[in-house]
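Schema walkthrough. Field components (list of strings):
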Amino acid sequence: MGKVYLVGAGPGAPDLLTVRAARILERADVVFHDALVHREVLALASRARIVPVGKRCSQISTDQRFINRSLVEAASRYQTVVRLKGGDPMMFGRAQEELDALAAQGVDCEVVPGITAALAAAAELKISLTRRGLSRSVVLATPRIGTDQHAGEWAAAVAAADTAVLYMGAGEARPLADALKQAGLPGSCPIALVQSASLPGTRNLYTTLDELPRRAPEMSSAGPTVVVLGEVLRRALSAHRSGEEPVAEPLATRASGA
Amino acid sequence: MGKVYLVGAGPGAPDLLTVRAARILERADVVFHDALVHREVLALASRARIVPVGKRCSQISTDQRFINRSLVEAASRYQTVVRLKGGDPMMFGRAQEELDALAAQGVDCEVVPGITAALAAAAELKISLTRRGLSRSVVLATPRIGTDQHAGEWAAAVAAADTAVLYMGAGEARPLADALKQAGLPGSCPIALVQSASLPGTRNLYTTLDELPRRAPEMSSAGPTVVVLGEVLRRALSAHRSGEEPVAEPLATRASGA
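Field assembly_structure (string):
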């Protein structure tokens, strides 16, 4: 019986993989990978059979039960089986279903963490998600746009933390902003959208909660985008504003100064 | 003028460093490092002058302004300056003060993310911090034990999220548990303490919020310990309980069955 490694591939850049993950890939016999895993990362698995199972890759969602079965089956045939996931497996990686399926069949399993998108976004912005006197809590969340009874819970969790990073949601900016305001966030809350953090085509945009629905469409849907919110962004937002739109001296001041 | 790299050293295990971080260390001229960075990681910087600036290492806290000045000064003398921090620089790494100091002097700077302790703890437990239908928000926080006006904010953020990971606080279990209960968390909330995640001496312990003050002292203070809270831990807690303390069949049932 082989061993299954649930491995985080990190945020996108191939060299943001961990050294441990790289070494496991080099000796892998088979690699089941999500979409959005860089081809240079897959190339490390030079001995392995490569099996794409991600939604965006094949355009058809591979059924989770099929993935579970495939992992168990592979462990019975190969020594080193890798399940490669974008970011970190334990953060929005749907790892639990696979871990449970493997445990149920008595398959040995190890989790190798990866750099999650929130940390790559902070590195890209060069803004710490925590800051002395300003932020001692950071929530990572996926929004749930809808009207069921749990719809507001994610927004309440975002409003209660000092800093938040939303995985997904940039494409639904209007209902996202509405839900966050309803949860108590002020319209002036500073926001940064970060697209394709760590990759060559990365882009970012500073705005506020009030202006998010108007500004968000400026980001194409070309890459995964996270939404960062919180006072830690205030100074960068102001700096961008003063650079982008020079503030005109108020007429009254000019008149009195003349 | 050289460049300063703020690099995350990850949770402890030397091979949980990113490939990018390892390459930068290999060509570093000088490395200023925190306590708790593994000596094998420092050994990668074979060309560099190694300067410890962490509190636990020297037993004397190096003044932040001194670190800031040292980084700026080093950038004027060396090409590749590394500031190596445990975990991720942007998550409880006090990176902003250094980034600001470098920006103020016009020093080029890049942030290289690292695996933060929460992800290493989840990998160790083999429990995903998020889970379909159970957890879509994860808060990472440092508790603030005290009575000032902001003392309850971190606890409110923890209570509002589906899953929480507290960096620090295991040593102050009684006031920690009190603050979390006051914020609305039930005494039955499942908890896992994870010490020295990713290192050979790692240990973990499952308990509940009610029992935390009694159980927490079982962990020595030998390594950094995070506190994980939330329903994602419920099943593992039950499994540990049934293993540790086999549940006796209630007398009434036995009597009626006899």
